[in-house]
Amino acid sequence: VAGHLYYDRLLVKGGRIVNDDQSFYADIYMEDGVIKQIGDNLIVPGGIKTVEANGKMVIPGGIDIHTHFQMPYRGTTTVDDFSQGSKAALAGGTTMIVDHVIPEPGSSLIEAFEQWRNWADEKTCCDYSLHVDITHWNDRVKQEVDILLKEKGVNSFQVYMAYKDFYQMSNSELYEIFTFLGEMGGIVQVHAENGEIIAEEQARMLEMGITGPEGHVLSRPEELEAEAVFRAITIASQTNCPLYVTRVMSKSAADIISQARKKGNVVFGEPITASLGTDGTHYWSKNWAKAASFVTSPPLSPDPTTPDYLNTLLASGDLNITGSAHCTFSVAQKAIGKDDFTQIPEGVNGVEERMSLIWEKAVTTGKMDENMFVAVTSTNAAKILNLYPRKGRLAVGSDADLVIWDPDTVRTVTAKTHNSAAEYNVFEGMELRGGPSVVICQGKLVLEDGGLHVTPGVGRFIPCTPFPDYAYKRVKARKQLAVLRAVPRGMYDGPVSDFSPLSRGGTPSASARTSPTKQPVRNLHHSAFSLAGPPTTEDLPIRPAGRRIVVPPGGRSNITSLS
Amino acid sequence: MSQESRGAVMSTTGEVPAFFKNMGSGSPKPRQKFCGMFCPVEGSGDSKTLDFQSLPGGSKRSDERVIDRQTDISQPRVEIRESRGKSALQNLDDRVRSDRLLIKGAKIVNDDQSFCADIYMEDGHIKQIGENLIVPGGVKTIDAHGRMLMPGGIDVHTRFQMPDRGMTSVDDFYQGTRAALAGGTTMIIDHVVPEPGASLLSAFEQWREWADSKSCCDYSLHVDITEWHKGVQEEMEALVKDHGVNSFLVYLAYKDVFQLTDSQVYEVFSVIRDLGAIAQVHAENGDIVAEEQRRILEQGISGPEGHVLSRPEEVEAEAVNRSVTVANQTNCPLYITKVMSKSAADVIAQARKKGTVVYGEPITASLGTDGSHYWSKNWAKAAAFITSPPLSPDPTTPDYLNSLLSCGDLQVTGSAHCTFNTAQRAVGKDDFTLIPEGTNGTEERMSLIWDKCVVTGKMDENQFVAVTSTNAAKIFNLYPRKGRIAVGSDADLVLWDPDVTKIISAKSHNSNQEYNIFEGLEVRGAPLVVISQGKIILEEGSLHTTEGCGRFIGRKPFSDYVYKRIKARSRLAELRGVPRGLYDGPVCEVSVTPKTMTPASSAKTSPAKQAAAGGQPVRNLHQSGFSLSGAQIDDNLPRRNTQRIVAPPGGRANITSLG
Fold it and tell me: Where in the cell is it found (chain A) (predicted)?
């Protein structure tokens, strides 16, 4: 470790550069953390460090779009902090992570954001960015979201449809949040599970005396995940807002996403390392600690064909982006829920295994090629975060985050050798083909010859800007189409029944909380007819305030028609 | 033959016989005759609105009879003889209401087969079916001449005499059942809608009173659950056990009025399953509808088009999907009322393929017309189409729903007949959200389905009987008393004429409403003779109803058609915990803040809990292809020795595993 040197200038020779669109042989020259030249026979300064790729693939460093490092949880913290977590990420070929800021319900989003910034700036070994979770909703939160979007470099916000009475949002709140973010150019991420039904099912399981980790998956059947995905898509479609479903764990949820994409919805699905690599049969393990280490929400599906299915959808493009949802607790922490599965802290590992696992499951099996591999591990994430082409692509001017990938190396995943601090690894014993042989982050060699050389605190916060083209080009076009017009009609001057003004079904009652969003947006993508009436409407006089004629002696209804 | 006479009667355009135009139902627009963009239906205001007095007699209007009959009168299709010497009974005064009736030479059509036989009825029951029956002398005989005789229709969804903010829908139980009988429907099931806060039982008694005094045909009642607490559960039990109710409707729409939360729906479904009843759902996402309504009103759209704009069909499909999910979780049979859109129907069809016990009910309106009329410049006309979920603006919807009905993905048809006249609708003339909701359809239901499905070759007459009558009787546990022609069944029969053509019009229909949403639609196929409770109600185009003769038909719980599968699944669904030793390793200290997923019960009391604890745990594992109690490959391995100990003060984690 002592012998390694950090060079600001680096040449990678003889590699096959793999982007999401094509692969080609070229040398890459980097300086000050940025790619300066790509090509053959580059003219570079003398004396620089050179890495021989020997024809191996050079790919953009992975972007893990979903991590929970150093996450506070009821007075404890996940065992992988930003230093440990980003070290594990780099060991697996991931050169950027995007963590979730989780403000306590009722507290300030911006304060929480600053807190996470402090933690990460101090410790992270690679570049990072942040999502902010919206755990409650009111006008103040709305203003903070506005500030985060415009000034703080956050463009994606997660809402929860689960965790009843805690994080869970009502349908009306979701509608308002989606409407607002749709206008401001943010990405809505959802944790999709029906929290109300889960709460009922949890109570039922505990009543039946099922207290172990199997109760976790029994109380959260995959249908509830699929239902919530369906509902989120419906609301997103109504509000013309791009939707991002975090943690796609089951076949049915993935199916709903791919169906919605076929119907034209702007929706992205994120399977995670765990759902791509293992299944939920382990919840029935007789080893409590092992079973508990798999507890995450939505749970891993007990259907053992799920990982293969999700890998296929990832390869076909129905799912787009992969994260790890890396959130690790020690066995002692998991044991908080030893007598009640609802108390087990949730989360699995996966930041280190993500790239190798997808290579093993999808590329070596022939489901996808190396270009698609780059797309799902890096490029698509960069696009949706609006960081492309700075991240996610090997091009002149891009950040010098790259990985020399060895498709033939084989290693066995085990908690004994992994870089996470967790005692269990959900992929324990799995043999993975393909792994990084060299990792370069910010133009510096981080992994070389099996040695990992990281520096906590060098990671920079990368701000994300709103309106990523990848999602918003379509949304903007639809917005222009979606103008509604009323039908011009004459005044109704017939009889009007007497009625008691009791509240009734259709009354547009506002939700209990304030509803800050008002601006109209509407997705007419599927609509086969034009809602816009004849363009003659503007000149017509507005209907005068209606005089109510209750039961006129004339008796006969007389409908005035226009013209 | 009908071609020439039609030429005389109607001013239809073109040479093509009308029934050819029906074929394939390719025409996206309903065939409108009188109701143009700018005018109300010609003559529809006559003797309508506020002029209820003149109607009940019926004789006043019987001369300008309903259906423009196209039959060749010189050749009677049906002969009704009386041995006492009267040869025909076309006159109300001469009619003898015999309790004994013989129908000769009919082709009896049930949902499973058709066969030719005579049928003898006495005291409102079918006594004999066969050839050369031995019957008492002097019975009235109808000679069917080989025409189809089918079980009378069952309209599973009506809202007659429905109160809405001090108003009442214009068709009361008399007028409504009269319209039903005129269309070949001999039984209706109405919805009891208790005001939130009111007692279910007293609302039920109120509806019984109304219906008993006025209904002209047998009826039964669904009860709507408009709020949820412990008392409601007890009343539901009483209704099922003592009052013959086996179906309850919950609303996912009408926020802050009828709408229930997902947790409440879960609890209601659990109770319904334990009682052996059917869970009906009005499926629309009320939260989103409320938001959209506000948005549409803000944009200055206040006319009826705002109704459909604020209730897009996705919102219906979403709610259907959610209720299917809850029904699967609770192992409760589900019944979706008013399937109005392709997407909602698709969700039901998919759920059935996955094994969910779910039934879908398209209504006359969704099978016969579409939502393009909401954009009509005639306000009264546009308002007449207001119902929830709304008619889909997609003009291919009716054809699609008829296809699903034919292939069995949708099973039952109702009318959701709930009519308000224009003055009542005008309550919402400046705000579409105030327009009272509901469309007509009880009279048109049977003919419309015949025209759209049987004439076009989508279904045969047996399937027609299934979707108009038998399936409803099976689901609601009335089978085989209703919904089948068999010895012992009720004598509710329809002699069906597949060739008669009529044009639906508000001028001639039996409803009190001034508008008919099917105005000008030409349909082929209509009842020739209707027999209810063994008595002839419709013959030779005249309707002879008796106010108040309809009986309440109680329905028992645990309908076989529905519950056989549910019961089998409950038996399978026992869950077991994994036997493990005690965890004796270190446990992290935590702050007392309640954790995210405490199994918090809903704010109100949850009565389902007691029931669930006492009863058998049920769970639908229908789709599950694997065993939940499978052994793991490493079960027998000793616990793993943890190398990595993250500073637990108590030392190493020591997980006891079972040997």
Answer: Cell projection, Growth cone; Cytoplasm
**B423, A291: Cβ pair inside 8 Å?**
no
Report if residue A409 sits inside a domain.
yes
Residue A205: closest C-alpha in chain B? B575
Nearest residue of B to residue A528 by CA position? B394
With CB atoms and an 8 Å threshold, state whether B380 touches A494: yes
Give the model's pLDDT for residue B592. 60
Q: Are A37 and A21 in contact (CB under 8 A)?
A: no
A-chain CB neighbours of B583 within 8 Å are 288-289, 335, 338
Count of domains forming chain A = 1
Please check whether residue B388 lies inside any domain of the structure: yes
The span from the CA of A90 to the CA of A95, in Å, is 6
Report yes or no: A287 at the B interface, CB cutoff 8 Å: yes
Report the CATH number at residue B175. Answer: 3.20.20.140
Triad B577, B582, B586: Cα angle to 5°: 125
Q: How confident is the model at residue B523 (pLDDT cuts 50, 70, 90)?
A: very high
Nearest chain B CA: its distance from A12 CA (Å): 37
Q: Write down the pTM of the prediction.
A: 0.80
The residue of chain A nearest to residue B324, with distances taken between CA atoms, is A227
Q: Is the dihedral of CA A144, A468, A522, B282 positive or negative?
A: negative
- Which residues of chain A have a CB within 8 Å of the CB of B617? 204, 208
Q: How far is CA B316 from CA A197, B252, B312, B483, in A?
A: 20, 10, 7, 30
Q: Is residue B626 part of a domain?
A: no
Q: Would you tell me which residues 423-462 of chain A have a C-beta closer than 8 angstroms to some C-beta of chain B?
A: 423-424
Judge whether B30 lies within some domain.
Answer: no
Q: pLDDT tens digits for A133-163?
A: 999 999 999 999 999 999 999 999 999 999 9
Q: Which chain A residues touch B576 with a CB distance below 8 Å?
A: 210
| Cβ within 8 Å, pair A511-B379 | no
The Cα-based distances of A108 to A100, A115, A514, B581, B596 in angstroms read 15, 11, 18, 43, 19
Measured distance CA(B252)–CA(B461) in Å, rounded: 35
Closest Cα in chain A, distance from residue B49 (Å): 7
Helix A251-262 and helix A222-239, axial crossing angle in degrees, nearest 10:
20
Residue A502 has a pLDDT of 56
CA atoms within 13 A on the CB side of B619: 18
Give the 3-state DSSP-derived string for A311-366, with helices as H, strands as E and coil as C: HHHHHHCCCCCCECCECCCCHHHHHHHCCCHHHCCCCECCCCCHHHHHHHHHHCCC
**Cα–Cα dist A386/A370, whole Å:** 23
Which pLDDT score is estimated for A336? 93
Give CA–CA dist B429/A546, Å, rounded: 8
Reduced 3-state DSSP string for A378-411:
HHHHHHHCCCCCCCCCCCCCCECCEEEEEEEEEE
Rounded CA-CA distance B82/A197 in Å is 64
Q: Classify residue B67 as exposed, middle or buried by CB count within 10 Å of its CB (0-12, 13-18, 19+).
A: buried
Residue B181 and residue B219: Cα distance in Å, rounded? 12
Q: What residue numbers bound the domain in which A220 lies? A: 57-482
* Residue B247 within any structural domain of the chain: yes
Q: Is residue A518 part of a domain?
A: no
Strand partners, B121: B101, B126
Q: How many domains are contained in chain B?
A: 1
φ/ψ (deg, to 5) at A176: -70, -40
What is the band of B81 on the pLDDT scale with cuts at 50, 70, 90?
low
Residue A149: CATH number of its domain: 3.20.20.140
Of chain A, the percentage scoring pLDDT greater than 90 comes to 80
Which residue range forms the structural domain that includes residue B259? 150-569
Task: Please check whether residue A34 lies inside any domain of the structure.
Answer: no
pLDDT at B59 over 50: no
| B314: three-class secondary structure by DSSP | helix
* E-strand stretches of B490-624: 493-503, 522-532, 535-539, 542-543
- Of B363, B338, B391, B422, the C-alpha closest to B167 is B422
